[in-house]
Design brief:
By secondary structure, the protein is mainly β. It has a single domain, classed as Rieske Iron-sulfur Protein, CATH 2.102.10.10. 5% of the residues lie in helices and 42% in strands. The strands form three sheets. Strands 2-3-4-8 form a four-stranded antiparallel sheet, with no helix packed on it. It has a three-stranded antiparallel sheet with strand order 1-10-9, with no helix packed on it. Strands 5-6-7 form a three-stranded antiparallel sheet, with no helix packed on it. A hairpin with a 2-residue loop joins strand 9 and strand 10. The longest helix is centred in the C-terminal third of the chain and has 6 residues. The two termini are 15 Å apart. The structure holds FE2/S2 (inorganic) cluster (FES). FE2/S2 (inorganic) cluster binds next to loops.
Length: 114
């Protein structure tokens, strides 16, 4: 995971299962806890732009509130027949909070050797 950059999630993380929109590194994403595990996913539904943080979890998938397409929490894959997917982002628990990992874009990799 050498080319991941980690950004702190500043929002308070509630106890128990939850689903909400958060802003991390300038992106609006969907943060949720389902059955004790936290996930960070794309917040806009690839079908027609529904807001996934307004949806719910069912059988290990995030369900869009608009037309009920569903996406696997672990790998973002759409349910059978949908032929689509959402982005998932790795999370890391550090002493001072929760961090999200983003792949560095090509531009950054080529022009900023930091
Ligand atoms: S907009 Fe999400 S299922 Fe249609």
């Amino acid at each position: 995971m050498a080319d991941l950059r980690w950004y702190k999630i500043e929002e308070q993380i509630p106890e128990g299962d939850f689903i909400r929109q958060v802003a991390v590194a300038g992106k609006k994403l969907c943060l949720l806890r389902n059955e004790g595990k936290i996930y960070l996913l794309q917040n806009s539904c690839p079908h027609a732009g529904g807001i996934l943080s307004g949806g719910w979890c069912e059988k290990g998938a995030l369900v869009c509130p608009i037309h009920r397409y569903s996406y696997n929490l672990e790998n973002g894959r759409g349910a059978e027949g949908q032929g689509d997917y959402i982005n998932t982002y790795p999370l890391q628990e550090k002493k001072d909070g929760l961090y999200a990992g983003f792949r560095q874009g090509l531009f950054r990799r080529f022009f900023h050797k930091d």
